[in-house]
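Researcher: Here's the sequence for the chain we discussed earlier.
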Amino acid sequence: MPEGIGCMRAHVYRGGGGAGHRWKFRRIGGVYEVVIESGEDFRRLAELDPKLWVALSCPTRGLELDPVTLDLVDTDGDGRIRVPELLDAVGFAVTHLKDPTLLLSPETTLPLEAINDQVPSGARLLSSAREILANTSSQHADSLTVEQATDAVRLLSRARFNGDGIVPPESADEPAVQHALRDILATVGGKPDRSGRAGADTEIVQAFFAELRGFAAWWAQAEAADQGGEGVLPLGADTPPAYAALQAVRGKIDDYFARCRLAAFDARAAAYLNRGERELAALAAGDLSTLGDDVADLPLAHVEAGAPLPLGQGINPAWTGRLAAFVEKVVRPVLGPGVETLDESGWSAIGQYFAPYGAWMSSKAGAHVEKLGIQRIRELLASDAEQAVADLIARDLEKAPQLAAVEDVNRLARYQRDLYTLLNNFVSFADFYARDKQALFQAGILYLDRRGCRLCVKVADAAKHAALAALSNIYIVYCECTRKDQSGTLTIAAGFTAGDSDHLMVGRNGIFYDRQGRDWDATIVKIIENPISLWQAFTAPYKRAARIIGDQLQKWASARDKAVEAQTRAGASRLTESPAAAGPAAAAGTAPTAFDIGKTVGIFAALALAAGAVGTAFAALVKAFLAVAWWQKLLAVLAVLVLISGPSVLLSWLKLRLRVLGPLLDATGWAVNARVKINAVLGRTLTDVGALPRNAACLRRDPYTRRASRWRLVMLAALLAAVFFAWLRLALHGRV
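Model: Thanks. This is the structure I predict for it:
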């Protein structure tokens, strides 16, 4: 652990597990953090009180760690790693390693001799590791790399049978079985197997064949009813399309006959049931190139008491197509080819004609497989497709132990490489406090305004993140980062913890280097302002005063410039005007106003009096300052500085001592359990302020600032001379 970061001292804690393991803690950044430094610490991690962990959960994305490892730790697949899941991962590693101390030295290779073969699962894991090496022509190697384990998992996942119990159509040899699997996927759907291909498992296959049997039994009911004379399919194969055509107009025809019955009840109702003139006029004023809902809502035909429904002329044009299909598929086959109108008795007869079919349709089973057709459904049920697919699933599941062993090898190799790093960013924040490392949540370094900000985190939504991150009391700059070879933008939140904020503003550009070393163009889009340093707070009142004075001088100069410009224009206008245009006074040669020397002398006298008063006051201050002892002079200067800068420094100090990391990470999905403070020393570590190297050779003479420097020296000399002569004058008069 580096020196000079916060306050560090060791502390021993006895955990809550019967034997009383002696934990070692280090105080750093104002927080006691556990130090994991032995194999026994890994074995006893479950005994460590979670309240002493720095974090309780973290997201699996947005961290600078292999996402495959994070997904292995996230056993429930919810995108978050919690304490129980991390303890399970540690337990797996401890069980399958002879000495868990190996985890303290992360490597990309897993020594075979380190695998604990004294437990059954460890023996299977070791055998699988040797098989992987044999298949990669490395049978004589004594260690396995993460890449080799990952490739083995990938190869097995892409195999014909990969042990997940899901079989895609490509797994079958026989075309008939492949056809059956495609029918399953096309009707009841499937699941992706390990390789990503869609397939069916036992549950899906059972659901599919249950649907087939249900539909076949339902169809058999119709056939049995027809044989018994009940007429479920009165038109045979034409019954389903005829019934669909009937259903398309049933509601509208019912509406028409109901209106006719109401008109027969009261003749006055007919005018309203056919819609009023106002509605028709509004409809006529619109665009009728397409018959929309307004036209379709009108009655199907002209409503009259007891009138039959015409089947040809006089039909609402929005319904002509559907009514024509109804006449062709229903009226003609049921009532005869010569029917031109439909009365209520005929309409009732049609309803009764299709009633058995409607009742049968309401009891339909196996709707998902209906599109296969009854012939294909009966063909599948008569074949051995169900047993053939079940046999394929059984063959696939036979490979499950082999794949599980290979996955365990991959898991152990990755845990040996990444688990200690994850613990140092979860149980403790050791990597965050180390000078030579970066924590998993640190996305890179932002270079902007001669500073390098290491406290950068990836952000999905800057506005949402800022609502919580503002509670950290850190000066946060949100930047949108782009690269030519990357689509979209990357948003980061960078904490400025050293320097000042004088030149940080929305729109300013910088460069962001991610953890892979790629550079991104970064532009500030949002700022959360908070104190950065005490020096900034100390100088802030003087900078504000200088800014106010500069603004006032600029306003005064601008006003004087405009006044001079106005006077010049007025004078030029008078000079260019002709005597006639200048008016009677100008034509008569009016004399200009005479110079009043007395008034001018009075002005200068007033200015001299004011200057004398200021000089006298200044001389009195100088006399009083020079009359006191040296230590009183020092106290006076300090008092003035405290009076001016004290409030700003005090307010900033109160905020800086409350500067914490938690809200910045909580806003990205972490659950930080400790108040990780960012004090001044740590702040200077997280934000590097540009400085010249210690052994740099500097040429201090700047040819472009010599004139300005000379003028500054002249002005300083004049000020000192004025002070000296004021003091000398007082001395000569005996006042000093």
